[in-house]
C-alpha cells in the first residue's frame, strides 16, 4: 500500500478519530492503560468525520443506539443491515457496532449497518473515509506517495538472466497504491521462458516495509500477486494471491486455454461488443470487467459521481463529501441492490467465450534460513544502503518464484454433439442398416414418385391441349375427315386414340375403320420354292442306267 509516513498529513484527522473510537470502544490507547473512557471526555473540536458517518453502539433490540461521539442515545430509524452475515438484527445486540448512513436530502431516511466484530466495523468505516480523502488527491501525487519500483525490488532474475525495473510497468490501484506488472508488453516486447522449472521463471526479492504500513487500512503484511494475460486487467482485490514475509514462496503454473461455443449452444459473448455496457478498463472483455463497469455506470447515473475504487467514466468525477454529501448513503443502497441482483448487471453481463487460466500450485519454505540469515541480510542491507538508513529485518523481505512446471499448453474446447452433417450421416446409417437404403436408392425413389409422376401428368395435359386444339380446327373448317385423307394415315388415324406410338399389343387392339376397305396384304411370292433343273439334257450315263 501507500507509504503511511507520506500519507499522514492527509490522514491525520481520520487517524485521530479512529484512535478515539478504539479508546471508547475497548478502553485502550497508545501508551496508556486500558481504562474505558467516558463519552463526556470527547474533544468537541474534532473533525467532521463522525458528523458524516457517526459510529454507533447498538445496546438492545429496542432499536436504540448510542452515538460514541456525542454520547447521545438515538432511536434507530429505517433499515438495519448486518454486514457480516446479511441477516437483519442478528447476534447479541450488546456487542453490535456499526455506523448510520442517512440521506442528505431527507434526514428521516437512514440505514444502520452493523457488524458483529468491532474490527470489521472500524475497518469499513475507515475505508469509506479513506476513499473520500484519496478521491481528492491528484493521481501524480498519489503515485509519489506509494512505493517506486526501486523501493520494491531488491533482486530480480528471469529465465536465468538478470532483470530490473525496466521490465516492470507501473499502474496505480485505488486502494493498494502503486502496482507493477512484469512482462506487460507495453514496450512492444514480450519475454518468454525457454524451459520449465523454477530456475527459468521469475525470481524476485521484494522489500516489504512493514513498519510503514497503515495500521487501520491494512492488517496483514506481505504482497499480493496475480498471474494474468497482457490484455487482461488484474483484479488484485478479487483473485490476488498473497505471499508472506520471511518466507520463500514458489508458485508453479499450468497454462490452460479454454473456449466455449456461443449461441445457440451457450449464452457467452465473443468480444463483449454485444453487451450494452461500456468497458471502463480498456482491456479485453471479461465478466468481472462488465460487472464493475455496469455498477460504476449505475453509480454515476444514480448518485451523480463515481466510486473511487473503480475506473472513472468519461465526463464524471470521483465522489467526495464536499461536492457529493449524499454519496455514501447512495453507494450503500446501490451496492445492496447489486448484491441482491436487483440492479440488472448480472442479467446483462455474460461470460466470455474464450479465456485463459493459470492453475497455481503454491509452496512455502522458511527464508532466509537460520545459518544464512546473517550474511544475506547484511549484503541486502548494503545493496540498499544508499536509499535505506536501517538494517533490514527478515520480516521486511519476501522471496518469490513464479515459473511454469512444464511448457505444455492445455486447450479445452467445446464441440457440438450433433450438427447437420452428423445428423444426415446418422440418418443414412440407420436407413442402410435397417432398410438397406442408400443415396442411389433415395434418388430412384424421388425420381419414380416425383419426377416421373410429374412428367406423366404434364404429358397428359399436353395431349389434352393438342386434342382440344385439333378438334377446334376441325370444327371451324366444317369438313369431316375422309378415309383417304392424309390425316387418316399413320398415328393420325382417328381410330388411334392414344397419342403414343403404337406397340404390337396396342396394334392388335385397334378396331378396323368403318368406312373403308379392309387393308389386305398380298401373299408372298414364293418363287424360290419352284424347282428348276439346272441341266437341259440328260447325261448319257444316266440314260444307260435307266435302261437297265
**Quaternary state, please?**
single chain
Tell me the structural class.
alpha+beta
Distance between the termini: 158 Å
Strand content: 15-25%
Classified in CATH, the superfamily of the largest domain is Acid-sensing ion channels like domains
| Count of domain modules | 3
Reading off the top of the CATH hierarchy, the class of the largest domain is best stated as Mainly Beta
Radius of gyration: 49 Å
Helix content: 25-40%
Main location: membrane
Subcellular location: Apical cell membrane
GO molecular function, one term: ligand-gated sodium channel activity
Membrane topology: Multi-pass membrane protein
Question: Any chance you could write out the topology, listing elements then pairs?
Answer:
Blueprint: H1 4-26, H2 49-52, E1 55-60, E2 64-67, E3 73-75, E4 79-82, E5 96-102, E6 110-115, H3 118-134, H4 139-145, H5 149-152, E7 153-158, E8 161-162, E9 168-173, E10 177-182, E11 202-207, E12 223-225, H6 236-239, E13 241-243, E14 247-259, H7 287-303, H8 327-339, H9 345-348, E15 354-366, H10 373-383, E16 397-404, E17 410-413, H11 420-435, H12 439-477, H13 504-508, H14 540-547
Parallel strand pairs: 4-6, 14-16, 14-17
Antiparallel strand pairs: 1-2, 1-5, 2-3, 5-6, 7-8, 7-11, 9-10, 11-16, 12-13, 14-15
Helix pairs in contact: 1-3, 7-8
What does this molecule look like?
The chain is an alpha+beta fold and 548 residues long. The protein contains 14 helices and 17 strands. Strands 7, 8, 11, 14, 15, 16 and 17 form a 7-stranded mixed sheet that branches. Strands 3-2-1-5-6-4 form a 6-stranded mixed sheet. It has a two-stranded antiparallel sheet with strand order 9-10.
